Amino acid sequence: MKKKTLLSIVMVCMMILLVACSGAKEKTGSNQPELDQEALDKVKKTGFPIVDDEITIKMFTAKSATSANVDWNDLLVWNTYRDLTNVKIDWVEQVTGDSLNEKRNLAISGGNLPDAFFASSLSNLDLYKYGSRGLFLELNDLIDEYAPNLKKIMEEDPNVKKGMVFPDGKIYSMPGLRDPNFLSIRIGARPWINTNYLEKLKMDVPETTEEFYEFLKAVKGQDFGNGEIVPYGGVNINDLVGWLRGAYGLGNTGASGLVDKDPNGDGLRFIPTSDEYKQLLEYIHKLYSEKLIEQNIFSIEWAQFMANASEGKYASTMFYDPQRTYRGVEADNYTSMSALKGPNGDQFYTNISSPIFNNGQFVITKNNPNPAATVRWMDYFYSDEGAKLMYMGVENETFIEEDGKYKYVDKIENGEHRETEISKYIPWVGINPPGIVKAEYFSGSESSEKSLEAAEKIEPYIPSEIWSTFIYTDEESKFLSASGEDIQKYVNEMRDKFISGDESLDNWDHYVSEIEKMGLEKYMEIQKAAYDRYQSQ
Description:
Residues 1-24 form the signal peptide. It comes from Lederbergia wuyishanensis. 42% of the residues are buried. Helix 3 (76-85) links the parallel strand 1 (55-63) and strand 2 (87-96). Helix 6 (140-146) packs across helix 16 (371-379) and helix 13 packs parallel to helix 21 (474-500). 43% of the residues lie in helices and 13% in strands. It is globular, with a radius of gyration of 26 Å. The chain has 23 helices and 14 strands.
């Protein structure tokens, strides 16, 4: 009798275990459809064409307003690539940014799935949700077999792969990447100082936070023929904070989120409650309270900022190449600054992003009859030649090469509106397409001579490890989209109040206490779990 009872218990336990395993498998992607072996056999793993007989893939894409009236079904770049690959793209939906979210979500929820979503900015939360349900294909094996260019990037920079792998170990998208070596585009706005004003004051380019403060004080109230000078001006306060935080050792893993590595241990640090962050705010508050920072920096309109800049009113700023953007009376007199050394001896430039600028830029759906061919089609744009096609187009039709440099032909460069002219032939404008951006083929201000020179000055002070954005489980995302968002909002509001003086830094302990009440402990538990998964990839 006892033996029968024991056997029954064992059998029940085994059934429970099987059910649990089955449930876990379903949750991590057991709904993935079987791939068509006949379609796989027709795909060439190397060379062009990708397939001998032309196939058609239906794609949904985002487009910029400048290309809203351009039909991608007859675009020079896509036609050229079709002839090369034997893969024809039927751009079934071409939507501009203001309606992207609505139409993309309708395509998913309405069951009218395309074969792939291109440049459609799917969030990690949606990638995980629909990937685990089987609506989006798992790409691990397909990338391994049919995407040698992306695979190479993932191997050369492990943080790229870490930013693509979800908690179930699956990859559900092919990202938009910035070339890891194209540092200039990864640092965005950078610090500039007017050398003309430096010379008049007989001062050198500041190298420390104290020297920067002394320069701002010296230039305040001066009029060098352009009206009263504003010591520091910017289009927002975020850029200044992002630059200066490295002088206090903050953001030692780059610009991703509110946490970094704890410099005093092996764990994570919540930056906005750290002593170093308080020091940073005290310094910026000092600058603001002494009117060394433009007083309406929290609300300045873009037009007003650009007008001030073109009139030479800013002695220092955080922006893009002034020669390419300001085009004003002092535009030629700006030189770039690098990382400043802070009061504790820290000297880093931490406002740098991961090479992944959007993880959800290319997704293959369960409806796709040719997923391997689609992966091969997309992988080309992670290569040098593919990047050239995406950003420069076709030689002698949209660009020419002179002395090893690439530039658009006259009909584009001298057109009434440059971006509109580019959009008539080339798809990249305004959409951050999947694939890789390379300096030699990118014509934005980040690739100007001054911008590249600025990046060279900054490079020695970049942290050795730059994290991609962490990816969270559904349960973690629920907390982060509620309490986590509240914490983020409160941190940002209080940062501005501390800097402006609307809130005294004497109330720092109360500020920290409020964040703790909002769920900081749980927030950090989630970040630790995500970090552990990230490191294990």
